[in-house]
């Protein structure tokens, strides 16, 4: 659904507002191997003082979906024991995260599950990546966005949904190389365990 100018302005206002409080989520970020600079680059925020309509997201990490046209969505992640783990804006359909990578990547691009994994690949490993917010959120028309790339590395979580997610993309797009994470692992947890070189070697092979 195309956003109106006023909707985009409200999303930008919310993103800027929550960015100012990202320091309150520093402990969580460090635990994920991310710095405040990484968070500033990705425009992550923390909902310390919810704007009207955002009260249900209090205490969560704010993850804006930034495109060349501006912020088009914000998702909110629990950084503690809050459930559910992720919450979205009411009535908003899921989108691809970090679509700007589609414009800057050259021969290859990576696809992974989740925003934190995409941030990890982009900012910690130097691998251009887009994120799908959950294994079941892949949409057929996303395939068209990948057709210009010679190679698409799909970093699959180490579980059955992750494996199914990777196979689904491989059936729809040519040039897919599936990189399976070990059992019960994802991109971010593997980065914390073995570092960036593990991923760089996967795309250099």
Q: Brief description of this entry?
A:
The chain has 205 residues and is α/β, with parallel strands linked by helices. It has helices at residues 5-19, 26-31, 36-42, 101-104, 115-125, 142-146, 160-172, 187-194, 196-204, and strands spanning 45-46, 61-67, 70-77, 86-88, 108-113, 129-132, 151-156, 176-180. The strands form two sheets. Strands 1-2-3-4 form a four-stranded antiparallel beta sheet.
Question: What would you say this structure looks like, in words?
Answer:
The chain has 2 domains: 5-88, DNA primase DNAg catalytic core, N-terminal domain, CATH 3.90.980; 101-204, Dna Topoisomerase Vi A Subunit, Chain: A, domain 2. It contains 9 helices and 8 strands. The protein has helices spanning 5-19, 26-31, 36-42, 101-104, 115-125, 142-146, 160-172, 187-194, 196-204, and strands spanning 45-46, 61-67, 70-77, 86-88, 108-113, 129-132, 151-156, 176-180. A hairpin with an 8-residue loop joins β3 (70-77) and β4 (86-88). The longest helix has 15 residues, at 5-19.
Short key terms for the protein model shown above:
9 helices; four-stranded parallel beta sheet; DNA primase DNAg catalytic core, N-terminal domain; globular; Dna Topoisomerase Vi A Subunit, Chain: A, domain 2; 205 residues; four-stranded antiparallel beta sheet; 20% strand; 8 strands; alpha/beta
